[in-house]
């Protein structure tokens, strides 16, 4: 999936090195907003942080361990959606995502995650995909819920956010469940 059109105004593009400046500008503009849920924002002090992230995601792609896509809307980068911790032997992975606040409410992330699920299950052949979301991030939790992923449980002290333990909601879907959901 190098480019995937979501609609006439929006598309997914494989995250590449030349996206670093635009992606850093988006993160920097949304620093206060994103920091509420994402610990990495404090470390993103210049474009080199984003360049290193992109390099790591391209290395993951080359190693068959996942990939990230930039989300574009009307010619501007809006966020990132990616497939992480891809385990080819177990045929499972995790989806992660973030979106600039000015792009919320347009359905971009729901359509982006749906496209990634379609590709990961239909083309890559994964059997299980999960999404972990901070329990209090209701906007982010709405995406897997809207797409029919099942809440499998709450992971207590599953990570840290700004030095404090945080809990995550774990959502997942299997290939059989996605096939049924997609056909209806």
UniProtKB/TrEMBL annotation:
<feature type="domain" description="N-acetyltransferase">
    <location>
        <begin position="10"/>
        <end position="167"/>
    </location>
</feature>
<keyword id="KW-0012">Acyltransferase</keyword>
<protein>
    <submittedName>
        <fullName>Ribosomal N-acetyltransferase YdaF</fullName>
        <ecNumber>2.3.1.-</ecNumber>
    </submittedName>
</protein>
<dbReference type="InterPro" id="IPR000182">
    <property type="entry name" value="GNAT_dom"/>
</dbReference>
<dbReference type="GO" id="GO:0016746">
    <property type="term" value="F:acyltransferase activity"/>
</dbReference>
<keyword id="KW-0808">Transferase</keyword>
<dbReference type="InterPro" id="IPR051908">
    <property type="entry name" value="Ribosomal_N-acetyltransferase"/>
</dbReference>
<dbReference type="InterPro" id="IPR016181">
    <property type="entry name" value="Acyl_CoA_acyltransferase"/>
</dbReference>
<dbReference type="Pfam" id="PF13302">
    <property type="entry name" value="Acetyltransf_3"/>
</dbReference>
């Amino acid at each position: 999936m190098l480019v995937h059109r979501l609609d006439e105004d929006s598309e997914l593009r494989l995250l590449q090195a030349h996206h670093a400046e635009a992606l850093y500008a988006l993160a920097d503009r949304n620093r206060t907003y994103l920091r509420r849920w994402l610990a990495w924002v404090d470390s993103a002090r210049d474009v080199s942080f984003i360049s290193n992230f992109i390099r790591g995601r391209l290395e993951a792609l080359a190693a068959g361990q996942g990939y990230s896509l930039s989300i574009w809307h009307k010619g501007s980068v809006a966020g990132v959606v990616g497939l992480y911790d891809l385990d080819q032997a177990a045929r499972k992975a995790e989806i992660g995502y973030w979106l600039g606040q000015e792009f919320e409410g347009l359905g971009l992330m729901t359509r982006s995650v749906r496209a990634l699920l379609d590709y990961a299950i239909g083309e890559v052949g994964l059997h299980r995909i999960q999404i972990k979301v901070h329990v209090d991030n209701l906007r982010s939790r709405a995406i897997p819920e809207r797409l029919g992923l099942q809440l499998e449980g709450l992971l207590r002290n599953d990570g840290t956010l700004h030095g404090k333990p945080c809990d995550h909601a774990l959502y997942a879907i299997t290939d059989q469940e996605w096939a049924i959901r997609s056909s209806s």
